[in-house]
Specification:
Length: about 120
């Protein structure tokens, strides 16, 4: 077993993602992959929540200045952000890292269904 934090969970998420990509390939909108992955994760015995809204605060302002929604939080430990783009860019990575910070999680996966082969990045705070 890998010594990476939550490797057992991330391995299952990646496996479920490959299952979705094997069925659909690339070319669909992100929401299609998200719904299919929401079906596959329970098959992999993963508990998750979808699109939980989190407030964004700035300095000492008492009220939030906005909100963001990550695609999935799995097992209350791993943030999953999906994309359906030809190639992951630095802006996608920055967005996922910001979500990790806001959700106060240590491990995340940025998964891209838009390329010919499924691609993903493991993120750690």
């Amino acid at each position: 077993m890998s010594n990476l934090k939550y490797a057992d969970i991330t391995k299952k998420i990646i496996g479920a993602s490959f299952e979705v990509h094997k069925f659909f390939g690339n070319g669909f909108q992100e929401v299609i992959y998200q719904r299919a992955l929401a079906y596959e994760m329970p098959q992999a015995r993963l508990d998750f929540v979808r699109e939980i809204e989190k407030h964004i605060y700035y300095k000492d302002l008492p009220k939030p200045i906005g909100t963001r929604r990550a695609d999935f939080v799995v097992e209350d430990k791993v943030l999953v952000e999906l994309k359906a783009v030809i190639q992951l860019e630095d802006v996608h990575l920055a967005q996922a890292l910001n979500y990790l910070k806001v959700y106060r999680l240590e491990v995340g996966l940025l998964i891209n269904f838009g390329s010919k082969s499924l691609t993903f990045k493991r993120l750690v705070m």
